[in-house]
Amino acid sequence: MKKISVLSVLLIISVMFLASCGGGSSNQGADDKTNENTQMSEQKAEPEQTPLEKQLALGEKIYKEKCIVCHQADAKGIEHAFPPLAGSDYLLEDPVRGIHQTLNGSNEEMVVNGKTYNAPMAPQVKTKEEAVAVINYVLKEFNGYTDDQLLTMKDAEDVEIDPLPIAPQTPQQQ
Ligand code: HEC
Question: How far away, in angstroms, is 154 Cα from ligand 1 center?
């Protein structure tokens, strides 16, 4: 009789144990897993950005912080004042020159899509990384360049950083 009751106590304990770890917690276990999975994919989302995606995100940030005031949200510029960057024959003819202008500014008469511009543009960024990023953003976002047509850091190799002494302007001051 004693043996039986010890066995049954053991049985009950093991049933309870199984119930709490297996059956009982199975729902909870599933919930935990779902949470874990979503958390994991949320965490993964950022590191999974490719170097190019990161570069273009930086370019977008710079464009929206700096270039947009003059060259406008659609990059079509303002006639007679700020030349377009979207569909700009001048930029597309030589995008590396665009890197140079973004770093050093520009103060020369230029004809863009048949219109003459000659207001100065102050230097906009300090590093080649930033210049390549924003020009690539412009090429992809507003000129339909595919990823393999974009500039690389190697394209910026020979660009000299020698900023023109032009004070930053705002469109209102023009
Ligand atoms: C304060 C106004 C202003 C801001 C801000 C500005 N630009 Fe310009 N941009 C100009 C003007 C004016 C010209 C014409 C310069 C000249 O005639 O020398 C120009 C010319 C250019 C050109 C060559 C012409 C063309 O249309 O292809 C490029 C490329 C360019 N800018 C890129 C940029 C980028 C990239 C930024 C942001 C990082 C920027 N600019 C910010 C005013 C501005």
Answer: 23
